[in-house]
Automatic annotation (TrEMBL):
EC number from the UniProt entry: 2.7.13.3
Residue intervals of the Response regulatory domain: 587-702
A GO molecular-function annotation: phosphorelay sensor kinase activity
All copies of domain Histidine kinase, residue ranges: 348-567
Residues in coiled coil: none
Keyword Transmembrane helix: yes
CDD domains: HATPase_EvgS-ArcB-TorS-like (cd16922), HisKA (cd00082)
Positions of modified residues (4-aspartylphosphate): D636
Residue span, HPt domain: 725-820
The keyword Membrane is annotated on this UniProt entry: yes
Stored PROSITE patterns: HIS_KIN, HPT, RESPONSE_REGULATORY
Protein name, as recorded: histidine kinase
Amino acid sequence: MSASKNNHFTRFIKGKIIIIFLLACFALCLAWVVSKVAFRQMMVAVENIVEPNNKLRLVNELSRQAARLDQLQRARLVKNTRKDFFYESKKTALIIDTLENLYSGDSVQLVRLQRLQKLLGQRDKLFLSYLNVRNKLINDKLFTLQVQELNNLLDKNAAQDSSITHTAKTTVTTIYPEEEKDTRSFFSKLFGKKKEPKEAYKVVNEELNIERDTIAEAIRDSLTRVMSNAVMQLEKNRLRQRALFVNRENIWINANDKLISQIQAIVKQVESEVVAQAETNNNDARLIVSGSVKKIGYIMLAFVLLTVILLYFILTDLSKSARYRKALEEARDEAEYHSKAKQRFLSNMSHEIRTPLQSIIGYAELIKDADKPQKHDIEAIYQSSGHLMQIVNEVLDYNRIISGKFSFSNEVFNITALLNEVISVMRPQTEKKQLELISNFNTTDKRFVTGDPFRLKQVLYNLLGNAIKFTTEGRVTLSVASILQGDKWNYTFRVTDTGKGITEEDINRIFNEFEQATGQPAREKRSGTGLGLAICKELVEQQGGNIHVTSKLGKGSDFTVILPFAAAEEPEYTIEEKAIDKTDDVAVWVVDDDSFILNLCALLFEKHNITYRSFQSPTDMLNAEWDDKVKIIFADIRMPGMDGKQLCANLRRKVPADVRIYALTAQALPQENDAILSAGFNGVLIKPFREKELLSLVNVKDSVNSTDVALLPNLSAVKQMTYGDEAQLNAIIEKFAEDTFSDISALKVELKNGVATNYITLLLHRMAGRTAQIGATELAAKLKAAEYAVEATGFKDKNDDILTLLTELQNLVTRLLKATANSTEMA
């Protein structure tokens, strides 16, 4: 198991290291991917920043073209460069078309460019018109021809003019008086002054008359009139051309200004867009760089955190591995030690069982050798057997013992009588070893307290038994002192001896489970299990007391127990001289596949005049006619065909609700009892049971006395129940032998040929219960342990152990039959 855990741990560590490596690779790959994507985005941003803006370039070109057109226009005024001008104009139009394609998604800019295109066309037209007007002004041939004609005329007439002329100048002055109405009133006219008349409007005409005396003069006059009209016409044309020129120039200048303003607006818009785009690109580049740095930082941080966490887990696992290794080593050592201790426990049984058993054997030998047995000897055997049976129950419930889950009763008892009982039980052992047993009590004869008398006896038996076992000569002393504090008696029990003593090292170990003093001889060490003092410690501490020991090697030991008990008044006992006849009140049914148990129950019921009916099969009970007097049913749990739980379920559907059903079983573990009660039983009667326990369930009091504690084991117990009736005793033993031999034969056949584990456990269960009831509790415990072992793991590897138990059981039955035959012959 340790190797398996180590392999699992090693795989776990390797897995974490592989995870760290994979995380590192993943982090590097992820960082590479992020860096690659970031650099690509940065390159795009840089290209966007570095790449010339076509819009701005074209707008700037458009601006330059506008300026160039303006220059060409001005140059056209000096030179005849119309061809270059139109070439540049077409080039400007192409630039505007390209800008329209670039701004295809911007409706505002499209409208602006279309207006610009229109303005450019209008400007070209206006410029052409302006040029035409200007050219006419500069190259006016009509005016030149007219002027030339006038010159020719003048030249021609100048040669012919030889007449004498008479010049007369006539001046005519015309005065236009202004009529003015007199708007004055009548009285103003009558009495007022007369207004001075305004100065009249005069028109002075001077006429120069030149008279020639010759005919040529008339011709000259006619020529003069023609020239005057021509000059006047020329003046009118010149004025009209000048006005048209000025008008066209103004229109052209306005169109040019509009075109320039539109181009400048577009330039500003594009420049603002370029600046905004450049800012956006710069921000994008910064965001890409900062985002990539953050992502890589997050990746590295996550990788570092995960690495730290995994390293922490690895270091934790390593530290756990060290702890587990140390714990496994300690557990291995402890398991090896406890394994040996438990082997001793299973082979030698409990020291607590052996101590009262020794008293029983000792007193039984005294009675066997005595002609008239003493009553106090029989009483000692009876009390020790009751204590032994309860110890067996504790041993069978081993899990409850080692976990400290003891059950304590709270009853009134005479502590002085209990102490005397303990002394009387232990005295035969001291006498056998020729030791002196001294009792020193400072209590009155009738000191009653409230507590658990059985647990107190269990502790004292253990301490006195150990003292006797490890003392070879001298004495063993039980001293009891008490102090009343309020309503409680604080008792101090001291068990001292003159034995070998205990070393300091062993003092710290003896209260541990399965621990014993290492300084004792091997023979003495093997006589115990090492559970006694551990159980004593638990019993004392859970009752609110404490236990400690002082010892010196070679000078004996001193065990001190301090326990509080509540003070109590003497109870009133009711002693029945004879059994109460319950024939008219109660009828009992019993079902068990073991005829020995049925015969024993029949004897007890007949003894107390109880109406009963026995069944050896659950089916027979279910098919039997119901008797309304039946109030109690005892049913065995493990029976062939149908177990007690199924029988209880069927009976609950058939019998009245007030009928009580009790389980009669040798299954003594608490979890088994809980399962039985949950199946519908009213209670559980554990095999081996006492007469008083059986009778208490049918509300019949024992006819012996009310202080009975337990039934006698072995043949003494059976004799106690039969009240010395040899015929009944022999019948019980014969039936026990018959059933046991039958089960042994069936079990041997099943072990050899069968595969039915359930049937094997059933046979072991029956023999264990029957053997315990006859009084052989030690052998019954072994059979019960074999039953649990077969039920848990099967019987294939346990045949030899089971056959050994069967041999031991056969010998027991043979001895019982021989003893019965000898007693019959003596009678």
